[in-house]
Amino acid sequence: MKIIVFSLLLSTALGLSACQSAQSNQSVAKPTQQALQWQGVYVGNLPCASCEGIESRVSLFDNGLFTKTDTYLGEKSGKFTENGEIQWSADKKTIRLVSNDSTSVYQVKAGALVLLDENGQPATGAFSESYILKKQ
Q: Which of 80, 88, 83, 43 is nearest to 66 (CA)?
């Protein structure tokens, strides 16, 4: 009788630990798109060759759409707003903001978006930190 009770307790304990282990593995395997709280508003001042700077504001919505407003500082008619679709890369680490007018590529990080160049690379050099938009 003791052997039967012990066997039942042991098999129950092993079954529960296997379920907990499987649940732990599932949460670790989430891609960046799901693991980060990427939705929200990101703001930063980008360098500009012909003005004082570009105040960039990007709003990402969980329905897969975005709004981006760039204000060219020191320019009278320097405010441009575009709306469009968010496209995730296969590895879920970068996004393309696609509108009728343009496409921008950003690396998605915790609390920030990093503007990438046309080859998908981050800026290097003295102004590299200027291409980071911080989440509000």
A: 83
